[in-house]
Design brief:
The chain has helices spanning 2-11, 16-72, 82-100, 112-129, 136-148, 161-168, 172-200, 202-214. The radius of gyration is 31 Å and the shape is flat. The protein contains eight helices and no strands. The termini are far apart. Helix 2 packs antiparallel against helix 3 and helix 7 crosses helix 8.
Length: 215
């Protein structure tokens, strides 16, 4: 009641239109704020869609470069004439160059702890990669244990627990990139092993690969 009397007293001597104007302005401000919030919510969805699309383009570029590189170094190149090989190498180099002209970059937002975890995980992978030429089999086993620490599936072998704790401290986007890098390294090792087998035992290896494809 007291509040009502105060309000009525405050309204004495003021035109009714002015009071209605204040009420309408207040309502208009609320509506405007709501509309702006809805617009920002919609824009946030589009921003995330943009980042997802750019990340997909990054992965596609990586995949294309890897496929072109594999063709350039495939054993099939050894089984064609020199002229055909030269022509194919020129085409592959042209495609490689055109792929490299595409620049896509998605920056990951990290706090200091996530940045340190990423640097630590990168160093651990680099240490294994630097030993590949010295001991391929041991390095492959080590990389598989690192990969096992990144996957949610049940690993077929041992897991590097230390590496797993480091990766958990990374940003989600960095965790995905670390996993993709390990997958690429393991594929490259597998391809190199097939190349070595073909060089040492060409007939038996080709037959074995054909049988595996049938299975």
């Amino acid at each position: 009641m007291a509040q009502a009397r105060i309000s009525a007293k405050a309204g004495e001597g003021q035109p009714a239109g002015q009071l209605r104007g204040r009420f309408f302005r207040s309502t208009s401000m609320a509506d405007c704020s709501s509309r702006l919030l809805q617009n920002l919510d919609q824009l946030e969805l589009r921003v995330e869609a943009l980042r997802d699309a750019a990340s997909a383009m990054e992965q596609e570029k990586e995949t294309l470069l890897e496929m072109i590189h594999n063709i350039q170094n495939s054993q099939d190149m050894r089984h064609i004439s020199e002229g055909e090989r030269e022509e194919l190498c020129l085409t592959a180099s042209r495609l490689m160059g055109r792929t490299l002209t595409v620049e896509v970059s998605v920056e990951t937002i990290r706090n200091p702890q996530q940045q340190e975890s990423l640097l630590h995980a990168t160093r651990m992978i680099d240490e294994v990669v630097n030993k590949l030429l010295d001991d391929l089999e041991d390095s492959k086993s080590h990389l598989m244990s690192l990969y096992g620490a990144c996957t949610s599936e049940v690993p077929s072998g041992p897991i590097d627990q230390k590496f797993q704790s480091v990766v958990i401290g990374c940003a989600i986007e960095d965790q995905k990139k670390i996993k993709r890098r390990l997958e690429t390294l393991l594929r490259n090792i597998e391809n190199s092993e097939k190349s070595i087998m073909l060089l040492e035992h060409p007939k038996s290896t080709v037959q074995q690969l054909c049988n595996n494809e049938r299975d």
